[in-house]
C-alpha cells in the first residue's frame, strides 16, 4: 500500500476510497454556504505547451463563441436557483488563456454579478504574450483587479527545456508598471532541468523588481499525459530548491502565504484554490460544496451539448463522508500554512481536536506544526512535507483523474484509492 492510501485511510478512518460517480444534478446546494469562491475556465490557447496538464485546446473563433453561449447558460442555470444575489469571496479566470476571450470577459462578469455579489477581487491568469498595455486596460475596464502571469522562468535555457520561447520582457514590465494592478502574481516553475539556485534566485529577483507583488513557485511535475522532452530534477533537488526559494524570499522581506507562494507584506493574495467552498464554471472546472465535489466534463462538445439541453455539464460527482470532507478541508487549510480550529468548528460544527486531536498533537511533536495564537501554523519542515505529499497526491489522484477525463467525456466512475 502506498503513502497516499495510508494517509487517506488514517485521516478518513475508513478503507472507503474516493469514489466519483457518473452523476449530475441540475440544482447545486450552495445557497446556505459562506466563503464561496467562483472560478471560470477558459480552455483556449494559441499553442500548446508540452509541460501543461490543464484542460485546453487550440483557439478557434467559432468554437469560442459557442463556448461563451454555453458558459453563460451554465452560469444562469446555477445562479438562477438563488432567491436573492449571494455573496462570493472572489472570482478567478483560469485556463487555458482567458485573454483569448478578452471581449467576452465583461459579459461573463456581468452574468455572474446578476446572481453573485463579489466581495473580494477578480483575478485573471495571463500568458506573457497577453501582457500588453491595451489588454491590461481592457481587463481593468471589465472589473479585473488581480492578474497572474505565467512567466515560468526568465531564463532562456529553462524556457527552452519547457518548450517555451522567450517573450518580450521589456513590453511585459512596462505594461505591468503602467497598469498599476494592486495584485500581480508571477508563476515560476522550479526543478527544471538545467536550473540552478542562481537562476532561480534571479527569477525571483526579476519578478519582484518588475512589479510582482507575489510569486507562485510550482515544482515541475511530469504528468503521464504531458509531452515533456526533459524530465524534472529529482526530489532531492526539489527539496533543496524549495528551501532556497523560502530563504531567499524571507531575506527579501516576503511572507510565505502558502506552501508555494510568497508575497510582499500588506498585499492582497492571489489564490484561486484556498476557499471553503467554490463554484466552477466551464470545462474541467470543479465545484466544492459542503458534502460534494463535482467535476465538469473535459470535452468542449460534451460541455456545450449539456448546456444547450438545459442540463449542468458535471461529469463526475463525489459524495463526501464527513471524515473525507474534513480531511479535504484540512489538506487545503494546511496549504495556506495555517489551520484555524475556530474556522474548522464553524464549518463542521465540531471541535478540530475532537476529530483530529491525535494528528494535530503528533504534528506539533514532530515539529511540523506550531501553535500561534488561536491557530496552528506550518513550520518550514511541515511545509516541506506538505510539498512532498501534495506532489504524491497530484501523481496518484489528479494525474489519474485528468488522464481519464481527457479521454472520456463522461466516465462511468473513477475510484481514487
Ligand atoms: S501553459 Fe498556459 S498557454 Fe501553455 S498550454 Fe497550458 S494553459 Fe495553454
Topology:
Blueprint: H1 3-12, E1 18-21, E2 36-42, E3 44-45, E4 57-58, H2 61-79, E5 86-88, E6 90-95, H3 102-113, E7 116-118, E8 122-126, H4 133-142, E9 146-152, H5 156-161, H6 169-179, E10 183-190, H7 197-209, E11 214-219, H8 235-251, E12 255-258, E13 261-263, E14 277-281, E15 286-288, E16 292-296, H9 300-308, E17 314-319, H10 322-335, E18 338-339, H11 341-348, H12 352-365, E19 369-372, E20 375-378, H13 380-407, E21 413-416
Parallel strand pairs: 2-6, 2-14, 3-4, 5-7, 6-8, 8-9, 9-10, 10-11
Antiparallel strand pairs: 1-17, 1-21, 11-13, 12-13, 15-16, 16-17, 18-20, 19-20
The chain binds iron/sulfur cluster (SF4).
What does this structure look like?
The protein is an alpha/beta fold. The protein contains 13 helices and 21 strands. Strand 15 and strand 16 (292-296) form a beta hairpin. Helix 2 crosses helix 9. The longest helix has 28 residues, at 380-407. The model has no long low-confidence stretch (mean pLDDT 95). The structure holds iron/sulfur cluster. Iron/sulfur cluster is lined by residues 45, 48-49, 52, 54, 56, 95-97, 127, 150. Iron/sulfur cluster (SF4) binds at residues 45, 48-49, 52, 54, 56, 95-97, 127, 150.
Radius of gyration: 21 Å
Q: Order of strands across the biggest sheet? A: 12-13-11-10-9-8-6-2-14
Which molecules are bound besides the chains?
A: iron/sulfur cluster
What does the oligomeric state look like here? single chain
N-to-C span: 10 Å
**Number of extended strands:** 21
Number of helices: 13
Beta-strand share of residues:
15-25%
Largest sheet: 9 strands, mixed
Structural class: alpha/beta
What is the overall silhouette?
globular
Mean pLDDT: 95
Instruction: List low-confidence stretches.
Output: none
Q: State the helical fraction.
A: 40-55%
Amino acid at each position: 500500500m502506498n503513502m497516499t492510501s495510508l494517509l487517506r485511510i488514517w485521516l478518513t478512518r475508513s478503507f472507503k476510497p474516493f469514489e466519483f460517480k457518473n452523476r449530475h444534478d441540475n440544482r447545486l446546494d450552495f445557497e446556505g454556504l459562506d466563503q464561496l469562491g467562483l472560478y471560470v475556465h477558459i480552455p483556449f490557447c494559441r499553442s500548446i505547451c508540452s509541460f501543461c496538464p490543464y484542460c485546453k485546446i487550440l483557439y478557434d473563433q467559432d468554437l469560442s463563441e459557442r463556448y461563451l453561449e454555453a458558459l453563460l447558460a451554465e452560469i444562469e442555470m446555477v445562479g438562477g436557483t438563488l432567491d436573492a444575489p449571494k455573496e462570493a469571496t472572489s472570482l478567478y479566470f483560469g485556463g487555458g488563456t482567458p485573454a483569448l476571450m478578452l471581449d467576452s470577459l465583461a459579459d461573463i462578469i456581468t452574468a455572474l454579478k446578476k446572481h453573485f455579489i463579489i466581495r473580494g477581487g477578480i483575478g485573471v491568469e495571463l500568458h506573457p504574450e497577453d501582457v500588453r498595455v491595451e489588454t491590461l486596460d481592457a481587463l481593468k475596464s471589465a472589473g479585473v483587479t488581480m492578474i497572474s502571469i505565467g512567466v515560468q522562468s526568465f531564463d532562456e535555457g529553462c524556457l527552452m527545456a519547457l518548450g517555451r520561447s522567450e517573450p518580450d520582457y521589456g513590453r511585459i514590465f512596462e505594461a505591468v508598471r503602467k497598469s498599476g494592478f494592486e495584485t500581480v502574481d508571477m508563476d515560476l516553475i522550479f526543478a527544471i532541468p538545467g536550473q540552478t539556485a542562481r537562476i532561480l534566485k534571479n527569477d525571483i529577483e526579476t519578478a519582484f523588481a518588475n512589479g510582482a507583488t507575489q510569486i507562485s513557485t510550482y515544482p515541475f511535475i511530469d504528468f503521464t499525459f504531458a509531452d515533456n522532452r526533459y524530465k524534472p530534477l529529482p526530489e532531492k533537488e526539489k527539496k533543496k530548491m524549495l528551501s532556497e526559494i523560502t530563504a531567499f524570499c524571507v531575506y527579501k522581506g516576503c511572507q510565505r502565504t502558502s506552501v508555494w507562494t510568497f508575497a510582499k507584506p500588506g498585499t492582497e493574495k492571489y489564490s484561486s484554490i484556498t476557499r471553503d467552498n467554490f463554484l466552477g464554471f466551464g470545462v474541467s472546472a470543479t465545484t466544492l460544496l459542503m458534502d460534494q465535489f463535482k467535476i465538469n466534463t473535459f470535452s468542449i462538445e460534451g460541455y456545450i451539448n449539456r448546456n444547450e439541453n438545459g442540463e449542468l455539464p458535471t461529469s463526475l460527482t463525489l459524495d463526501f463522508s464527513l471524515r473525507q470532507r474534513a480531511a479535504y478541508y484540512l489538506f487545503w487549510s494546511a496549504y495556506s500554512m495555517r489551520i484555524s480550529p475556530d474556522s474548522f468548528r464553524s464549518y463542521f460544527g465540531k471541535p478540530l481536536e475532537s476529530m483530529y486531536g491525535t494528528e494535530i498533537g503528533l504534528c506539533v511533536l514532530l515539529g511540523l506544526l506550531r501553535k500561534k495564537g488561536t491557530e496552528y501554523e506550518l513550520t518550514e519542515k511541515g511545509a516541506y512535507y506538505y510539498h512532498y505529499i501534495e506532489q504524491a497526491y497530484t501523481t496518484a489522484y489528479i494525474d489519474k483523474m485528468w488522464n481519464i477525463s481527457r479521454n472520456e467525456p463522461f466516465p462511468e466512475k473513477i475510484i481514487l484509492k
